[in-house]
């Protein structure tokens, strides 16, 4: 089971968030020690993000709440337009990797996602045996109930799953449930973890 952004799909999310935080007002100012994982963690903890990516608020409401919560100097409409461009494309070779794994395994994706980005990912997501998005589940990683919802849909226990994500918080949450979970960065890192696990 794979996360998408930063694992199999190239996105502008992290660099855009870092840039927004660097230019934030004092209430949302970027700490100089805030590394990539810290930026990811802040995104995961954000009340605005959690509401949007669990499908509870529409994009326009999210944009307004986000710029207020994060203290960024963008108009909500401009932020929303920018947000739509964060998803770039699957990494070269990602679709082929999934097809190869499907020859011997049930291959799923589980992504914290939203209606804007999920629609762009539809052609790639169609290549999985099963695909789960937080905005459709109404649950979001790293919450335990989100993982349990996916396991319930798959009809398997946690020990049957190998999980790959670029967020330490998500990996640690999966491990607490009993999954074998791997912190990876990009397609090369994902391939290495798969080979180390004997899946390639």
SSE order and pairing:
Blueprint: E1 9-11, H1 13-22, H2 36-45, H3 47-53, H4 59-70, H5 76-83, E2 87-90, H6 94-102, E3 108-111, H7 115-125, E4 130-133, H8 134-137, H9 144-154, E5 162-165, H10 168-177, E6 180-183, H11 186-196
Parallel strand pairs: 3-4, 5-6
Antiparallel strand pairs: 1-2
Helix pairs in contact: 3-4, 4-5
Shape annotation: globular
Number of helices: 11
Number of strands: 6
Q: Structural class per helix/strand content?
A: mainly alpha
CATH topology of the largest domain: Rossmann fold
Spatial arrangement of strands, main beta sheet:
1-2
Give the DSSP E fraction (strand runs of 2 or more residues): 5-15%
Q: Poorly predicted ranges (pLDDT <50, ≥5 residues)?
A: 25-33
Q: In the CATH hierarchy, what is the architecture of the largest domain at level 2?
A: 3-Layer(aba) Sandwich
Largest sheet geometry? 2 strands, antiparallel
- Mean pLDDT across the residues is 91
Cα gyration radius (Å): 17 Å
The span between the termini is: 14 Å
Q: Give the fraction of residues assigned to helices.
A: 40-55%
